[in-house]
Amino acid sequence: MSEDLNPFLSLSAAAAGGVLALGLVGYYVFRATNHQKDAFRRTDGTCAIWGRRPPAFIECSYRSADGGVHRSRLLTSGFWGVARHFNYTGDLMGSLAYCLACGGGHLLPYFYIAYMTVLLVHRCVRDEHRCRAKYGDDWKRYTDAVPYRLLPGVF
User: Fold this and answer.
1) What average pLDDT does range 13-40 have in this prediction?
2) Structure confidence at residue 127 as a pLDDT band (50, 70, 90)
3) Cβ–Cβ under 8 Å, residues 102 and 9
4) Which of 19, 53, 57, 133 is the S-S candidate for 48 at Cβ 3.0 to 4.6 Å?
5) What are the helix (H) ranges across 61-154?
6) For residues 85 and 34, what is the distance between their CA atoms, to the nearest angstrom?
7) Per-residue pLDDT for 71 more than 90?
8) For residues 44 and 73, what is the distance between their CA atoms, to the nearest angstrom?
């Protein structure tokens, strides 16, 4: 069989281990980030996150369509203090691992990470726009406390 048509990919043990580690870390980040938000909501902010009880948060208020004033809490502890959408970062890590498992011989598998990046960055920007409109000055306080969207130090 021609090498170009060989359907089997052979990654070195180190490369396979790196891809596996990236995928597992991405899965952990995704699940742990969402778990922190869920625990925070379920316990009305009394849970411990990364040893801090109660976790840090910003109290916000907003007006609903019916004119009522409501209160909300935006978590600034744990992964949610690292970046405002760090769960998406875990998603992207997992997506990249899926692509890397295919090796570097073809471009096609990498359309998945490109698609996921466009999808999640767009969602991130869209969510931020909605939150800015919803929370006003409180959103500014939140973005000052958690300055990065996806990648700490980058975006």
Assistant:
1) 96
2) very high
3) yes
4) 53
5) 79-82, 86-100, 111-135, 137-145
6) 10
7) yes
8) 9
CB neighbour list of residue 36: distance below 8 Å, 6 or more residues apart: 49, 55, 75, 77, 78, 79, 80
**What is the pLDDT, as a whole number, of residue 11?**
86
* C-alpha separations of 48 from 35, 75, 94 in Å: 12, 12, 27
List the one residue out of 28, 33, 29, 14 whose CA is nearest residue 100.
14
Tokens for 9?
Answer: 């990919």
CA dihedral 137, 142, 144, 147 (to 10 degrees): -130
Residues in the chain: 155
End-to-end CA distance of the chain, in Å?
46
Q: Taking a C-beta distance cutoff of 8 angstroms, is the pair 60, 74 a contact? A: yes
Determine the Cα–Cα distance for residues 103 and 18; give it in Å rounded to an integer: 12
Determine the Cα–Cα distance for residues 136 and 58; give it in Å rounded to an integer: 13
